[in-house]
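Session log. Operator J.P. requested a structure for one protein chain; no other inputs attached. Running the standard single-chain path with token output.
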Amino acid sequence: MTEVKQATLELSCPAKLNLFLHIVGRRSDGYHLLQSAFQLIDWCDTVTLKTIPENEVRRSNPIPGVPPEQDLVVRAARLLKEFGKVSSGVEIHLQKEIPMGAGLGGGSSDAASTLIGLNQLWNLHLDKASLSQLGLQLGADVPFFIFGHNAFVEGIGEQIQGIALENRDFLVIFPNKGIATASIFLDSKLTRDHAPITIDGFLASPLSNHLNDCQAVAMRICPEVKQALDWISVALPNSEPRMSGSGSSVFTALAAKTDTAKLENLLQNLPKGWVGRIVRGLNKNPAYNLISSD
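Structure written below.
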């Protein structure tokens, strides 16, 4: 059994944008084969981990209506605790800023930071590869956040290759209605035969000529997605807005000459309940330096 001293660690959990999302096939077990580029952004949740002598995992602020068995940070802590044979426990406080069901990877990022932080607090010394194998049991996007850098992602999310992306700002809008990922990927009208592209092909024009194959289905299921896309098109006529992940958040990259003060004023008049932010792209997860790259 691994025993640890009481300690507290606070970590940021950044969101991500899917700069594009192509569905290139489907495995015999039903999992979809994807290609995407993941861009980290500075819209973050905050997870605070406090080791406790009691042999349990507990949330100090549970999410109403979400049982522990579905709570990704609790599941992450329990998974690592069992794997590392840790005899003490942890109290987890999660400050949510990233909307749930928004296609921004908030839950996966929270789980990844929980694994990274507890690996440190519990002195397990697991490397990125080991943590990523555990993270994949929690969700397809978790290994990306453990990987810690912007990436070209393939397969079901487990094939990750780092890419260098230009530092830029984005406008992100969440139209206050989440979409269940399963409802997108189970839809009979979802296209699943997008021709694969190469990393070089993507990097030649990272913000143009690439689509989100989930977007058409999402707009039918959730009309607010189209409303948010239309809002951006009116506010920024020369932009190329698209949806992130399986929705429902939409975004566009901001040109260097964008009048951000004027845009901030426009964001004050979003429809009731909508959330809009100007965010900055990140080069790496703030928690990256806490784990070995071996």
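Operator note: The first strand starts at residue 8 and ends at 26.
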